[in-house]
Amino acid sequence: MSLKHFLMHGRHIPFLLGIQMAFIILFGVFVEYDKEADSGKAINANATTNEGNTIGHYYPMFQDVHVMMFIGFGFLMTFLKKYGYSAVAVNFLIAAIVLQWATLCQGFYHTFDGRRIHITITSLLNADFASATVLISFGAVIGVTTPLQLAVMAVCEIAIFASNEHLGLEILRISDVGASMLVHVFGAYFGLAVSCVLRRDVSSEKEGATYNSDIFAMIGTIFLWLFWPSFNAGLAEGDAQHRAVINTYYSLAACCVTAFAISALVSKEHKFDMVHIQNSTLAGGVAIGTAADMMIHPFGAMIVGSIAGTVSVLGYRYLTPVVNRRLGIHDTCGVHNLHGMPGMIAGIVGAITAAAATQEEYGYSLYRQFSARAPLAGTPEFKALHHHIEHLEPGLGRSASMQGGYQIATLFITLAIAISGGLVTGLILRLPIFGKVHQDHLFDDEMCWEVPEADHPQLEQIPSHNASPSPMVLHQF
Amino acid sequence: MSLKHFLMHGRHIPFLLGIQMAFIILFGVFVEYDKEADSGKAINANATTNEGNTIGHYYPMFQDVHVMMFIGFGFLMTFLKKYGYSAVAVNFLIAAIVLQWATLCQGFYHTFDGRRIHITITSLLNADFASATVLISFGAVIGVTTPLQLAVMAVCEIAIFASNEHLGLEILRISDVGASMLVHVFGAYFGLAVSCVLRRDVSSEKEGATYNSDIFAMIGTIFLWLFWPSFNAGLAEGDAQHRAVINTYYSLAACCVTAFAISALVSKEHKFDMVHIQNSTLAGGVAIGTAADMMIHPFGAMIVGSIAGTVSVLGYRYLTPVVNRRLGIHDTCGVHNLHGMPGMIAGIVGAITAAAATQEEYGYSLYRQFSARAPLAGTPEFKALHHHIEHLEPGLGRSASMQGGYQIATLFITLAIAISGGLVTGLILRLPIFGKVHQDHLFDDEMCWEVPEADHPQLEQIPSHNASPSPMVLHQF
Amino acid sequence: MSLKHFLMHGRHIPFLLGIQMAFIILFGVFVEYDKEADSGKAINANATTNEGNTIGHYYPMFQDVHVMMFIGFGFLMTFLKKYGYSAVAVNFLIAAIVLQWATLCQGFYHTFDGRRIHITITSLLNADFASATVLISFGAVIGVTTPLQLAVMAVCEIAIFASNEHLGLEILRISDVGASMLVHVFGAYFGLAVSCVLRRDVSSEKEGATYNSDIFAMIGTIFLWLFWPSFNAGLAEGDAQHRAVINTYYSLAACCVTAFAISALVSKEHKFDMVHIQNSTLAGGVAIGTAADMMIHPFGAMIVGSIAGTVSVLGYRYLTPVVNRRLGIHDTCGVHNLHGMPGMIAGIVGAITAAAATQEEYGYSLYRQFSARAPLAGTPEFKALHHHIEHLEPGLGRSASMQGGYQIATLFITLAIAISGGLVTGLILRLPIFGKVHQDHLFDDEMCWEVPEADHPQLEQIPSHNASPSPMVLHQF
């Protein structure tokens, strides 16, 4: 019976131990320190500072992004009244899996030299970005999936995500500094597609918040909002990084004010709605992501943020219920409103801004920003430019409008890959071997956790020494 | 009726949308990237690091300050049992307004070249400092003001604040690296003046804490305490920044220990009082602010911190009740004890330290620290010094004691401008058009928020299916 | 009677005021800014950046470690249902004492020039490390000690800790970049020894968690997990720092996945156990600490992390109850499982890795990493090496295996000093003058805090207007 019980309830254990062992073996075979982190190859054996080492440059923003993934996403999802343990802890587990798996998948595309993947602090930062993708998808299906299903989803999703990222950045050569298309659009529509296939009939009174759970969720919201400039600027440099910070800051500020106003406009008695405040105030960070390091100007960023805040609140108020009822797609955290639509806006804004980029406005930095716009190697244009820019890499000689076209193409390709990948992954998750959440356990920590007894509503209604059911039912949190 | 309802309860909506639109237009007309963030004017188109760009220097401390404003102030104010949503979320809204408005007001004084305001990361950092001013004032009137009133207060306050800041830093040429006078004294007395005019008769059992709300508030306290060195050192450089970090660190440590001891000394049964721990442990950060980058020495910083902790606890214990009862000035968070008096101490300590500053102790850095002490242009003294200091800017030839005098004058000018500005702003906020909080809604999220039913004390006492009022009243949080 | 009451309940007040005053005097006599923070000795009076000043290098990681001490440890310990105030606030008090005292104790060993201790940002970082030691010991005795006992413990422990640290780093010349031996092993076994001597008969229903307290604790867990790379890399430089970040990141990720799996394996119904998730997911950070900057390779770090996660969960599940019952050693937070055993693993892993270190693999950096392995001054080997490494310091000419031996010796010396120091300190804490926690107040904030009435279980069961005890007992949190 113990074995039977194990096979029923313990299936995630061999899976988790198995992938962890697989990660260790794959790291042993394929992963090595890059020379910046390798003692034997270090530039300067006498180094007493980080001079010439990129750790100092990337580390502060890396840590901000790291906080966004684990505190930001983790606590944002604690708003559910009986799902706080799972929100913050399963988020933790899934992200820890992804950090390792994404290092392998992205490393294979970025730094694999035929023998080894070479890792630096940017590998870690990229792995954190990748984990955002999965955590966004997690938001669509939180409460209706088991940890095992989520772990399997993470493994499938990252493999597809890394391929799409490679396609966008290295083959189509598009610019998406804040990863609004490659992470947010991808993660949101992948998650919605999974949710669509899982097609759980969800109507649970547990899918609500309490006073305390809403405040816990605000910890997530605020940290995400604060550190979003680091997310959008983390992989940029010099003036581009400086600009990405400024644009994201003002986009988010404008988005916050607008989201509050629109929330009051469309809510009952013109009160604010916590769901909007927790989520839609962040839409400006997503929507400016692709164009964050472009010359969109502060007022442009603020317009984008305001539109995103508006669209996001209206989505929560009017669109989500319809999508749920009519299309049967449940979206627990409303990722369509926070990541899906704002990500689409980001892609469009990025394409327009790219299509308007001139050398007059950008100076020679144009060819760093949009590498494909640099002239083809060997052409007279290349030689002329090379005279001004020492480290110029040859490009594809794209025009501004061509670059805009590639940007928009990438948006729709990402959408298509995310949706089809999500549908397939959803089908995999329905395999009986991965189990499913019993209807009584939807949005309920009881499924996976020992919940303190005196504290849990189902148990605390009737104290143990009082045998007869009391007519007085107390909902306490 | 819908229109009537809108005019009654929805007045903040057009105001919020209106100022956001105004910000966008003003940014479009006046605001531009500084050359450090402008692609076309960037120093080095090949930059692959942040060399020569100040973003790397300022960003980590900027983010710490950013966390202080939104997590620190936001959660510090969640201590009220039924006002957690408003504390953290309205703090969020008001700060997001201020970030944009302060960029304009401060930019007008700092970087306006007749045509454009030029923004960099320091503009963002300054805007965050400015938001502290409003959030301090917010602390004096939290629970007794509507979001609309607070937004109007923010707009008025920042305009006056930026003028006073300009007066202090650029006309009177004083040193206030941690902005203890320009931000803390200003914000506290401005808020108290507003509260004095609003003169709400406040005696609500809702003005108390619960076990959980007190722990939420500690999140705010601790983050403020941790990142205060970044607040005091964020705009400094080199050895001055290094010194500001050290002084603030030890001032805060000494303040914490002292505040605990004095709290136990004056509280019932010699227990610790959460109000003191949440607030007075921070007074050392305020009190060392003005002198943080001066040669006050670690033990000097610790003395200042210990005094501030003591004064602050005594203020909460003995002064606040008197001010409330006798003068009718309600001070919800006790900002007078955390920002007002410690800010006054800071101003005095700063003046004394400045009056004792000699070239012998400070070396040539003296003229960077106190720019007005540099000799007048063209004088023989200037020429002699210029021989040693290449980038010397001409000053006003002030003596040490003159500098001390200017410092103290600025303290009292700030006090006068804050109080008169606050009184006028208070009168504006009493205009019927801005509404007011109904007596029943003081310190109650119900005014602005849909609060989860089962969770709210007023509603949960009697479950919906139990019609008769129960004699058993449960206060649950 | 007031005096009698003061002598009974207020003994901590003169102690706290006394040590604070002593710290100020000792700082006045002995502590001075190092030249990097001294205006008169600053390298460049014209500095407008931090060039040539180490504040920029160390500050971001310092702040991460600072957050770990006060938010990380503070909130990790809020899991107890009625001890949240004490967990976060007494943690705050004790750490604030230690920051000052450790500056003196460590400064005496590190930078004392016979007249003055010279402090920089690394002094602050080291003081934060030292506070970790005490906070770990605090974890063993939380709930069974008074604030006065803890303050006394902190003072004794830091004096012993600083001596042991000096012995390890400067006399035995070992490498322990993440301080797993010098901080974690020391703190854990010191605390357990204290707990052993205090020998409180603890069996309280208050020693449990509630739903909300568990989520508060996760704030601590996640911040500790996120910033652990800064803890292990904070004092390293260049490629060694880069490597320490990478190793710690992957060790923690692997540890997290493994801890979840093993937790489900050994828990009832194969659910996850919050105690394991809150604590054992962090064991990887401890276990990689000593070898974090060595060439252990990412897969090696992941193996270490996985083993630590496994050992830690098994410790909580099987060892702690036995140690408690058989040996009578109570360990409230299970520091033996989070810091003790993983710290032992760290010491062993560090010794093995050090014993395998060759110049072939490490290049000339070998002699920076293990300074004792550099040749003796004046030897031909030294001269040959000096030819390649300009700033080479003479060492002790140790072989790899000798270095490994010294590493392992330090582990056991640390263990011996910690245990004996803890036993003596425990005896001191039992002196009647320091008081003790009454049996009714174990794990109860009531001892030291005014707890909101309506909120406290003991009071809220029976509303004040209801005289007769109700048969319906509600446990609410």
UniProtKB/TrEMBL annotation, chains A, B, C:
Coiled-coil ranges (or none): none
Keyword set includes Membrane: yes
Mode of membrane association: Multi-pass membrane protein
InterPro entries for the chain: Ammonium/urea_transptr, NH4_transpt_AmtB-like_dom, RhesusRHD
Main location: membrane
Ranges annotated as spanning the membrane: 12-31, 61-80, 87-109, 129-162, 174-195, 215-236, 248-266, 299-319, 340-358, 406-429
GO biological process terms held by the UniProt record: ammonium homeostasis; ammonium transmembrane transport
Keywords noted in UniProt: Membrane, Transmembrane, Transmembrane helix
Record localization: Membrane
Residue stretches making up the Ammonium transporter AmtB-like domain: 23-433
Cellular component GO terms held in the UniProt record: plasma membrane
Keyword Membrane: yes
Gene Ontology MF terms: ammonium channel activity
Family, similarity comment: Belongs to the ammonium transporter (TC 2.A.49) family. Rh subfamily.
Protein name: Ammonium transporter AmtB-like domain-containing protein
Species: Daphnia pulex (Water flea)
Classification lineage: Eukaryota, Metazoa, Ecdysozoa, Arthropoda, Crustacea
